[in-house]
Amino acid sequence: MPAKIKVLMIGDVAGPLGCAMLQKSLPNLKAKYQADAVIVNGENSAENGRGITPKLVDFFVACGVNVITTGNHIWAKKEIVALLSSQSGDRVSVLRPANFPNSAPGSGLTFFDIQVSTKNNSPATPAITVGVLNLQGRIFMKESLDCPFRSADTALSYMRSKTKIILVDMHAETTAEKIGLGFYLDGRVSAVVGTHTHVPTADARILPKGTAFITDLGFTGAYNSMIGMQKDAVLSTFLTQMPNKFVVDILPPAILSGVCITIDTGTGLADKIENFSILDHDVKA
Ligand SMILES: [Fe+2]
Ligand SMILES: [Fe+2]
Fold first, then answer.
1. Which listed ligand is nearest to 40 at the C-alpha?
2. Number of domain units in the chain
3. What does the DSSP assignment read for 160-222?
4. How confident is the model at residue 274 (pLDDT cuts 50, 70, 90)?
């Protein structure tokens, strides 16, 4: 019988509190879901909530994260450019959206292997290769990127020659663009999950041809913030229409949001998608 694997996908980790929440929660989450792999969006993990640094990449890997996806904030910390440029081949730990121009540093796709343990002392099974693809939407986003749908076609023509197990992070503002990509890739990938809005949606489901889908994973960071930033400055901008400096919120409680996807390794399609949101009042940044 083909093995099943379980993959956790966790929404944008925002600032020091988000990082602390991930570090504290991941061991329990992995045990609870018996997860074989973890994919996290890290585009907001930097100290000020914008971007990611090489040190944070190491932090995520040390926490047990297999692949870090990102989005529009990928370029915010210039130290990451050197790391993205130095990564070569298709086994990288941090991605930028694949539909940035080819001349931009970094890669939008990667692969990693997991070893599924056998339960009945039968000989060890060969490693299972998992692919991850990161894309960014174009509607209400500042960057002029290539079409994410056609970029997905190009990426998948390569990725599907290596594995049927492929997880896609579609970093986009609008629900329609994310749902559209879900249906467009239905049956060709194991999962399409949305990120970027930092608000979890209640539509986790298996699409008709077997792809797991959720419009947005939500985020990991300060629960009483506005998508990770201190609410007062954001509110003040709404009320006065004056510009304000937005500061990342590090006050508990913290929330961590994501999904667990169960994948049939024979077909590469999803059996199940379960969403979760955990609230922690004690975690400290
Ligand atoms: Fe984000
Ligand atoms: Fe974003």
1. 1
2. 1
3. TTT-S-EEEEEE-S-HHHHHHHHHHHBTTBSEEEEESS-S--S--EE-TTS-EEES---EEEE
4. very high
Q: How far is the CA of 74 from the centre of ligand 2 (A)?
A: 9
Q: What is the largest CA-CA distance in the chain?
A: 67
Point out the least confidently predicted range of 7-21, 59-73, 123-137, 171-185. Answer: 123-137
Q: Could you report the per-residue pLDDT of 84-97, keeping only the tens digit for each?
A: 999 988 999 999 99
122 Cα to the center of ligand 2, angstroms? 45
Cβ pair 29, 8 in contact under 8 A: yes
pTM recorded for the entire structure: 0.96
Name the 3-class secondary structure at 98: coil
Distance 198 CA to ligand 1 centre (A): 6
Three-state SS at 246 = coil
CATH number at residue 257: 3.60.21.10
Residues with CB under 5 A from ligand 2 (ion): 71-72, 196
Structural domain contains residue 70: yes
* Of the candidates 219, 222, 228, the residue with the CA atom closest to the CA atom of residue 50: 228
Using alpha carbons, list the distances in angstroms from residue 108 to 19, 88, 182, 256.
23, 12, 18, 24
Catalytic annotation, residues: 73
Q: How far is the CA of 131 from the centre of ligand 2 (A)?
A: 21
| Domain boundaries, position 181 | 4-280
Q: Which two tokens stand for residue 164?
A: 């049927």
Neighbours of 156 (CB within 10 A): 18
Q: What DSSP assignment string belongs to 109-152?
A: EEEEEE-PPPSSSPPPPPPEEEEEEEEE--TT-SS-PPPHHHHH
Q: List, in sequence order, every residue forming a beta bridge with 275; answer none if it has no partner.
A: 259
Backbone angles phi, psi at 237, to 5 degrees: -65, -40
Give domain status of residue 285, yes or no: no
